[in-house]
Amino acid sequence: MEPCIFCRIARGLLPCKKVYETDTLLAFHDIAPIAPVHILFIPKVHIPSFHELAVCDGALAWMNDLMSAVRIVADEYCLNGYRLVTNIGADGGQVVDHVHIHMLGGQPIGPMRVGAQPASID
Ligand code: AMP
What structural domains does the chain harbor? Predict the structure, then answer.
């Protein structure tokens, strides 16, 4: 069985609430939304995180589709603006090891520092 949950979604083996799709990209509602609009954008090929984009096949095609997908989805769901976030690795808070961009909107999302502690400066 395909171990990556987002690969399984991309292949139609697990259900999702699909918002938008291209040959390389799938956008769907997050299963545990933290904002009124919380949509994930994933590549259909397995790329572990944003950090691997430069060294993974298929990344450029996905990034190309991502630019227009974000605009198309935001024009439908986030008329007053939105935030894009991608978590990377343990310190970045990444839970699913398949690169995904969170789109958060539908209300004011607040300051960027939410959830993070100020770094100490020596
Ligand atoms: P991250 O912490 O950046 O790895 O975020 C992973 C996100 O994937 C979380 O916001 C989860 O709620 C979301 N998620 C996990 N499983 C599913 C699923 N089956 N369908 C939709 N979203 C999911």
Answer: 5-105 (3.30.428.10)
Contacts for 95 with CB less than 8 Å, ≥ 6 apart:
87
Q: Are 50 and 88 in contact (CB under 8 A)?
A: yes
Q: What is the reported pTM?
A: 0.94
Mean pLDDT of the chain: 94
Q: What is the mean pLDDT of residues 37-54?
A: 97
Percent of the chain with pLDDT over 90: 88
Which tokens sit at 20? 């938008």
- Best residue for ligand 1 mutational test, from 50, 88, 95, 100 (most atoms within 8 Å of Cβ): 95
Report CA dihedral (51, 53, 57, 58) to the nearest 10 degrees. Answer: 140
HSE-up (13 A, CA, CB side) for residue 61? 12
